[in-house]
Amino acid sequence: MLRYVTTNAGKVREAEEYLGDGISQLDYDYTEIQSDDLGTIAARGAREAYRHAGEPTLVDDAGLFVRALDGFPGPYSSYAEDTIGVERTWELASREEDRGASFRCVLAYCDGEGFDASPDPVDKDDRVAAAAAGPDADGEAEALPVKLFEGRVRGTLVEPRGEGGFGFDPIFEHEGTTFAEMDEAEKNAISHRGRALAKFGEWYAER
Ligand code: ITT
Ligand code: NA
């Protein structure tokens, strides 16, 4: 059974909507290293979770990148939500003329096996993600292979609207609708996580 490693129930609902009952949540709080790169954080987490669970693991590291704030909070989004919260993140962004932002999600898969030399990465996101999957230096004799899948979506930050979704969804508008105003299927069809899940699903079906 593939384990979706997260403490966040909102992520699990979206992954289940996408991947069906082929997955189950592993509520495991892996060590989130400090890095400005989601792929590095997710790769480390996937290795740690695999060693912990002994089953194939998929770790999901995501963040909100605000253009006018040079990408803040980015990899520190969870910390930003826990400290200043969604409303005050919006207040910060609302002082800027440029309200552009993106959500990014990196999925890291580890099952203890190696991967065939992969064909050329699909796009630049995947090349960036592939580079981040390199060996780590966490003291293990050998770094387990990890495969990364990335998805991004652009949007505009707005005053909070909507009751659905989770996290920063109420302030993230895409083509006139906030992510919190969409149901799971609508959000998955365009979201960072949906795009990463689509790439993963295609690859996993072949494995
Ligand atoms: P895990 O690490 O246990 O998976 P988390 O919620 O801490 O749970 P992240 O570190 O990836 O996960 O999350 C970064 C932050 O971004 C966190 O505050 C999330 O609520 C938020 N976030 C992630 N995906 C989101 C999405 O699709 N919509 C809105 N906010 C999202
Ligand atoms: Na986290």
From TrEMBL:
<dbReference type="GO" id="GO:0016787">
    <property type="term" value="F:hydrolase activity"/>
</dbReference>
<dbReference type="Pfam" id="PF01725">
    <property type="entry name" value="Ham1p_like"/>
</dbReference>
<protein>
    <submittedName>
        <fullName>Non-canonical purine NTP pyrophosphatase</fullName>
        <ecNumber>3.6.1.-</ecNumber>
    </submittedName>
</protein>
<dbReference type="InterPro" id="IPR002637">
    <property type="entry name" value="RdgB/HAM1"/>
</dbReference>
<comment type="similarity">
    <text>Belongs to the HAM1 NTPase family.</text>
</comment>
<dbReference type="InterPro" id="IPR029001">
    <property type="entry name" value="ITPase-like_fam"/>
</dbReference>
<keyword id="KW-0378">Hydrolase</keyword>
